[in-house]
Amino acid sequence: MEKHIRISIITTSILTGMASLIMWIAAGPLAAAATAAGGVMAIGNYFLLVRDVNKITTTSDPKPYGFFWVRFMLMGTVLFAMIALLKMNPIGVIIGVTMIIPGVVSGMVLGWKS
User: Fold this and answer.
1) Which residues contact 103 (CB under 8 A, 6 or more apart)?
2) Count of domains for the chain
3) Max CA separation in the chain (angstroms)
4) CA distances from 53 to 22, 35, 36, 42, 112 (A)
5) DSSP category for residue 26
6) What's the Rg (C-alpha) of the chain?
7) Which of 31, 73, 76, 108 could be disulfide-bonded to 92 (CB atoms 3.0-4.6 Å)?
8) Residue 111, φ and ψ in degrees, nearest 5
9) Does pLDDT of 113 surpass 80?
10) pLDDT above 90: residue 114
11) Between residues 77 and 68, which one has the greater pLDDT?
12) Residue 71's pLDDT is what?
């Protein structure tokens, strides 16, 4: 795995932990758990996406891969289940999922080869 990808995952994990701590203080432990769950889901999706894109771009004969839309449908279903069925705090889940954005940006800035 490339250095900037590792840094992105580590930074996202740290940011998710910090956001969970803030949510614990502001809204309680259930909101913190929802934030952590959203962050874990986003990190897992990012890791699988990077792996699949690397697999597609490094082959000499890239085939059309139809499983990307399946993953996004599955992610939407899991988000729905977390919020509607498990009654997780929707604000916490969304905050957790969005922690991937500053994590990836900081990973690109800190770990990119110059």
Assistant:
1) 8, 9, 11, 12, 13, 15, 16, 43
2) 1
3) 52
4) 34, 27, 26, 16, 18
5) H
6) 16
7) 31
8) -115, 5
9) no
10) no
11) 77
12) 83
Q: Count of residues for the chain? A: 114
93 is written with which tokens? 């889940």
The pLDDT value recorded for residue 46 is 92
Q: Identity (one letter) of the amino acid at 102? A: P
Q: In this structure, are residues 7 and 111 in contact, taking their beta carbons and an 8 Å threshold?
A: yes
The encoded tokens of residue 112 equal 């990119």
pTM of the model: 0.85
Q: How far apart are CA 60 and CA 114, in angstroms?
A: 27
Residue ranges making up the domain that contains 78: 3-110
Q: Quick one: tokens of 57? A: 């771009």
What string of DSSP letters covers 58-84?
HSSSPPPP-HHHHHHHHHHHHHHIIII
